[in-house]
Amino acid sequence: MKNRYEAAKNVFIDSVDIDDYIELDSAGAAYKRLQHSLDKPLKMILLFGKPGTGKSILLNRIFTKLKFQKEIYYFDTPSVTEKEFFHKLFKVLTTQDLPRNTEVNFSALVNFCKELRGKREIIILLDEAQMYGPQMMEKIRLLSDSRSVKFVVSLHKTEDEDLIAKEHFQSRIWEVIELKNATKEDQTAYIHKKLLKKNLFEIANSIKEKDMKLIHTFTKGNYRECNKLLFTIFEICEYYDKNEPIKINYGQIPKRIIEMAALKLGYIHV
Amino acid sequence: MYDIKPLEEEWKKYKRKKMKPWYIFIFVSLFFAVLVPVSLPYYKDSFFRSLKEMTKTKTEIQAQVQPVAKNEHNQSVVLLNGPLTMLEVYPPKEKKEEASLLETEPEAGPYDSAQEVSVLEEEVVPIQAQTSQPAPKKEIQKQKVHLNIIETTSITAYQEVEKRFYESRDVEDALFLAKSYFDQGKYQKAEYWALQTNKVNQNIEESWIIFVKSKLKLGRKNEAIRILTAYVQRTDSKQGKKLLEQIKNGSL
Ligand SMILES: Nc1ncnc2c1ncn2[C@@H]1O[C@H](COP(=O)(O)OP(=O)(O)OP(=O)(O)O)[C@@H](O)[C@H]1O
Ligand SMILES: [Mg+2]
After folding, report:
1. Burial class of residue A142 (count of CB atoms within 10 Å of its CB; 0-12, 13-18, 19+)
2. Ligand 1 in reach of A20 Cβ (< 6 A)
3. pLDDT tens digits, residue range B118-128?
4. Cβ of A130 and B7 within 8 Å?
5. Is the shortest distance between the CB of A223 and ligand 1 below 6 Å?
6. Which of A25, A57, A178 for a ligand 1 pocket mutation test, highest count of atoms within 8 Å of Cβ?
């Protein structure tokens, strides 16, 4: 059983690749809500949640699912400048490139969108929208008023910024879908399914209920933190497996190793 | 090679610390198991007096335990109180209590109980914060509030610099913002401003390093490696190479 821990470790490398998507109760519910919202004549949809709660992977999923049925685009990295953003948008709307040194006339763009009404229904998935300033957001909103372009805005905000964001979006008639950290059950399913997908049955079985509880306490159910913790756990297992196999129990991951990983990542301290 | 030794040492320290309240608890219970049956006959003549004595020693012990157990003190007090009240009210039962406790202890394994404590603690802490707090914790909180103030008042200053950058595209401003946000742990913003810096001038090493480190902090290890590899290929940077090594072998 050489290198099985290495394989397990690699399972938990952060990825928003759609092949790595896992069906979970919460993610499934969010997906259904998003799909439902996209069918409604809403102008904007806000996908909201802490970092690492699965917004990007959800957008990816909806994009892959709908790309043959609808006119849908996924803007994964935010444009650095307004100019860049409108160039990108112009390309999407007109399928033409704008010459580099020209600016997009915003009101012309709005008019263009209005004319598209009833002819095309364009969905744009905007990831990492916290990078766009309020002025940009306002322009995006004006564009969506044309009703030919519908934006799904994915946004993560933390702590103090949280409130500002929520206030801003609540004053609009937007649909808000919030993604939360996983429950213990969902996180357990997540870990198991991820391992089983790569046929690592024994390893999946070696993480017991009690360990899952501990992992959930450390990571608070955040998917990204969960990835980090499991990556580190298997990294330590891999080391022991290769160098000091007496220190490892193949039937059950020793709690000591989970705690060591938690120490390394700073979830707990000496 | 993976450097496991320091981590193992750290874990041992961690475990020892976690076990401390248990050792104290066992010690105190043992102490009473011996002391109470011996001392009770001497106070037979005055039952009330003995009761007073008992409560006095109890509070004394609580006071002793508090500074040592720190966060865990709530728990150890609860645990202490349990058997102690038993001792007072039903002196004969106390031996059973002791025995069962001593039995279950090794069975669960010292390691397992450490586990339980850590899990419990996580849940106990917020409640504690609302009720009584040990002195050291209060200090930390005060410090935090202070830090928060500094941060919030300077937010406008940063916004000024941001605004200025959008007008002037001064690379110094962008780099300053990237550095400051990184130091403050605002990695998303640090990433953004490092990117801005790189867009204006793609040869500032410090900015690339912040960019990559921010990504790493945000959990995007693969992306970080990809970008840094490209950077190292382009510039042959020594610092870049070193960082790349560190990221790959997980020492960062
Ligand atoms: N349903 C899921 N199936 C598979 N992996 C998931 C799922 N949900 C979350 N993840 C994992 O969690 C990690 C974080 O998810 P993601 O990057 O989508 O979070 P995010 O909310 O977009 O974070 P950020 O706000 O920082 O961009 C991803 O690497 C992904 O592997
Ligand atoms: Mg994301």
Report:
1. middle
2. yes
3. 344 333 334 33
4. no
5. yes
6. A57
The yes-or-no verdict on residue B227 having pLDDT over 90 is no
Q: Which residues contact A29 (CB under 8 A, 6 or more apart)?
A: none
Check whether A190 has a pLDDT greater than 60: yes
Domains of chain B, each with CATH number or no CATH: 57-249 (1.25.40.10)
Helix (H) or strand (E) holding B197: helix B187-200
- Is the ipTM of this structure higher than 0.90? no
Q: Is the CB of A26 under 6 A from ligand 1?
A: no
Task: State if pTM tops 0.80.
Answer: no
Mutate which of A6, A209, A259 to test chain B, going by most B C-beta atoms within 10 A? A259
Length of chain A, please? Answer: 270
Find tokens 């390309």 and name the residue: A91
Q: How far is the CA of A145 from the centre of ligand 1 (A)?
A: 30
Q: State how far the alpha carbon of B70 is from the alpha carbons of B63, B112, B115, B121, B139, in Å.
A: 11, 21, 18, 12, 13
Residue of the nearest CA to atom 8 in ligand 1?
A54
